[in-house]
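Standup notes
- HV: blocked on the assembly model, inputs below
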Amino acid sequence: MTHNVEHTGDETTLTVEGTLDAATAPELRTVVDQLVNERRQSVTLELSSLRLIDSSGVGVIVSLFKRIRANGGQVKIVGLRDQPRAIFRLLRLDRVFPI
Amino acid sequence: MIGLRVPATLGYRHLALRMVRAACRMALGSDRTPSGMVSDFEVDVISAFGEAFNNIAVHGFRGLAPQPIQIDVNWNDEQLVITCVDLGHAFDPESVALPDLDDLPEHGMGLFLMRTCMDEVDYRPGPPNVLRLVKLRTSAPRPT
């Protein structure tokens, strides 16, 4: 997994590529912690190059969503496809994130 | 049939997944989707197996020195069967509550995904523990 964080004004884009699973989720969790601690209000997850996700990876994204929302902000997801998109649908996360 | 024996640690997860993905593509043969597209069959099998491997590596060997996990994949015209054999801690799948998806859970979704993605999930506590995942070639496609 690789990731990149870009801030443009009040907007934050977090790009995640590769595999987000039990082995790599802890690394992304530190990024999520930082965004929450910085009280970012508008976060876009760019996932068009995310190839594989498991429940651990989903857990980190849900954590990001809940914590940013608790701070009054919002999270949106763009580019979700293939296996990650299927997992989001199975877990009914398409109710929360329009995909 | 193809098989793999690797230490039950997350560092070998990607290798195990590659083997199972290759088995899916061999099993589908001419029924595969066009090049570059991933079939629902492969998505389901890979997703379920990934959760199974996580459970063994993370929970099965918690507090233990990792030992090998034996993974075998068999297939025929009707189904694909993955068998995982390990000597880690056993668990009772019936004791695992279904996640409340309305509550946006952050944990406890692995077994749910395994059961949702596969047609049959059978676990026999050991030692050795034996997990059997079955995916039918004729599984109903997911609604889009």
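- HV (later): unblocked. The two ends of chain B are 32 Å apart (CA to CA). Chain B has a mean pLDDT of 91.
- Next: hand off to the docking folks.
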